[in-house]
Design a protein that fits this description.
15% strand; alpha/beta; six-stranded mixed sheet; 7 helices; 185 residues; two-stranded antiparallel ribbon
Length: 185
């Protein structure tokens, strides 16, 4: 069995668009998968869906939006507990499983993928606490490009997040950091 290529993750955080593109190129990323539920930023408009896709196209990097499938703020009200997204519940949804399947298919086609969200620190983002957990369980190595551009493995990011303390079953139950609107169960 051949080992699989890693999936990278990156948040734009405080990076300029040029720094962002340079980091993708440095890691030979060919396809950027946007996993923001809402791919728009009023603070950083260059990272909104259309301008970002255009900039990536010029840089020779394919843009793919999977925020409906893999976004951290799903429309499904039963994914929320006390206003926070329960990632365990979200991972059971068919739309989420389809998104993970699409990533695995792209990997099998030899695309070099980076998942993108807004948070610069991977431990603050669902790309590690939700998607990273799913991909790790599927045997996919992850390389999280942190706010400084350092390459961290999934275990390192989870250790940053938990301080190395797991629950009795060996894995923490993650939720979103923030509460969101009226989505409560």
């Amino acid at each position: 069995m051949t080992s699989r290529s890693p999936i990278y993750t990156i948040g734009y955080g405080s990076r300029s668009i040029d720094e962002f593109i340079a980091l993708l190129r440095e890691n030979a990323v060919t396809s950027l998968v946007d996993v923001r539920t809402s791919p728009y930023s009023s603070f950083r408009p260059e990272f909104s869906r259309e301008p970002l896709a255009s900039t990536l196209d010029v840089a020779g990097i394919r843009y793919i939006f999977l925020g409906k499938e893999l976004g951290g703020k799903p429309n499904s009200p039963d994914c929320y507990v006390d206003g926070k997204v329960d990632y365990g519940r979200l991972r059971e949804k068919d739309f989420y499983k389809r998104g993970i399947s699409r990533l695995l298919e792209a990997l099998d086609q030899r695309y070099r993928i980076a998942l993108m969200c807004s948070e610069g620190r991977p431990e603050d983002c669902h790309r590690s606490k939700l998607i990273g957990v799913s991909l790790s369980e599927a045997g996919i190595p992850l390389v999280h490009l942190d706010e400084e551009g350092a390459r961290l493995g999934q275990d390192e990011v989870i250790a940053r997040l938990t301080g190395g303390q797991l629950d009795l079953f060996g894995s923490p139950a993650f939720t979103s950091r923030k509460k969101y609107g009226d989505n409560k169960s």
